[in-house]
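Assess this today:

___
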Amino acid sequence: MGKETFRDHFRDYIEGERNLGRFDSVASKPAILSREMSRFFADKILRRLSPDLVPEAEEELDDCSFDGPKDCGVDFLSRQGNRVLIIQSKYSSVKLSQEKRHEPSDAFESFSTVLERLAQPDKHAMSTRLREAAQEIDWGTDSFNLRYITLSIPAQNARACEARGVAALSEYPDIGERSSLELYDETQLNVALRDAMLSQSAPSEPVRILFSKDENQSPWLSYEDDVAKRTTYVGRVSGAQIASIFDQHRSSIFALNIRNFIGNTSTNKKIQETAKNTPTDFFYFNNGVSALATRVTVDDKDPRVLICDSFSIINGSQTVRSLNKAKSNPLKDVQVLVRIIEYESKLKSSTQAFLDNVTKFNNTQNSIKISDFRSNDRVQVSLREKFRELPALQGKKFVYLNKRTGETDKKSIVIPMEEFTKTVHAFLFGPDDFSGGTNYLFDPNLGGGYQKIFGSELEQQTGITVSRFQELAGAWFLCGRVRELWKSRPEADREHKSLERRWLVYFTVGQALRLAYEVASLSPADFSSDLAALSNPSWLSGNDVKSDLIAKAIRENYQLASESLKRAYESAEKTEATFSHRNWFRSPNTTAFVESQLKSYTFLLKGQVRLFLLRK
């Protein structure tokens, strides 16, 4: 792990996952390289360390990427909830001389004033896409996370500028308190990459917690709940010990935390200042650290040490990372309140409900990535089981990932939970952005997207039914073929803005089929039944006449959907006085434009039914 480097992984990302050709040829185009470097940092590092900062979908990452002369120093801009992430990247080759690798003195300082430019679009040359993105920001309340990443050597004044942070704006005097400004040089990028790779799983070895000694008293208090089979340990741990634990295990100790370090915000700076300037007050001013462990034992050699298996901090990552940043100062006088909850690791619905709630209620002040709460419920576990039971495709078994992970298995066909859920919802009901985004999608309550897809609360407790699984799996495999067609679309279609996001393409293909069934006087039950027939992936192999006919029918439906989307977009662009490209992908009204265009192709829809009638 220690030898992993940002440069090497970035090169592999360009040539492999992004398929942009040889790295050296891309490196000759600075604007593209900066955009891709920022995208890589967001995708492979921040998505793992701070997942609620970065959008999930691939095309949304592209939508957040900017390059060109009117980018105002922004290579990547994303607004998730009320948090805005802005990244600027600078690349330099190791082949350059030391002198040429040094950045100009104003490079980082210019980036530190990017909010001033974005907040005043009329005073600065700005691309249309960037202007639209800036207009979505709530300048009075949003928080800002500014990341400057560079493989050059930062100017001497850069660190002083970083320490000063974001300056106040005349209209928003408190914006500095709502902002963090961070500079990553090559060493820090390497550390961040390795940290991100560790963050997806709990520590592989037990974590040792050394509690502070109390004269004539136990170093901790314990409370046992015999009914729930849980034990809680509470005590004081020195700040130096907290910093040492992080140094040893890095972000693996935050595996169950729904949000990692959010940067040097004013709150985290105050944590560091208290640790440095008034260490004896730290215990009283700070809420401390809460963690979970599947097994806790007392060390035979030192009764002050608790040995914790599958240790994960669920609240307090800001405290831990801030203390680690402040460790250049002695932290022996800093005391931190630590609570460790030992829980029964055997998977039960009640255990999962407890983990969901204890994580949620310990993070009420944080932005919650709600999909994490669903990862171990009965629906997700049963999906994993049922995909495992499907026949292999070209020698590869299907693996449903109900938990976020940084690891991939090249010998299997991987199906990520969030990708699966967003895809089937888009195909059956429309993109989740039309209804409230990811929070809506994974809301298990009545009215939430989770019930809409997976069934009522009672059904969720027993796991997904066979019939519902088959329908959803059929939709997933069909959309997989649609995605292949979408990714290989001709250049003219790539330039058409209506086809930027595949979620709307999935919905339009699905709606074309639903209308086809309606035209053919077939019921929604017929549609569901025929869709379920595609849950057996054997048709994906393309080795027989039936597979070829299904592939042809999907291609025809995709072409029909593409033409309908292009017409719907152009119609909205002409008729809506306040048309916004971004809002078009988020407005429920878009479905009406799409349906209207599809219905104009009624004479074609009858033929589309043969996709599912082939099996009869």
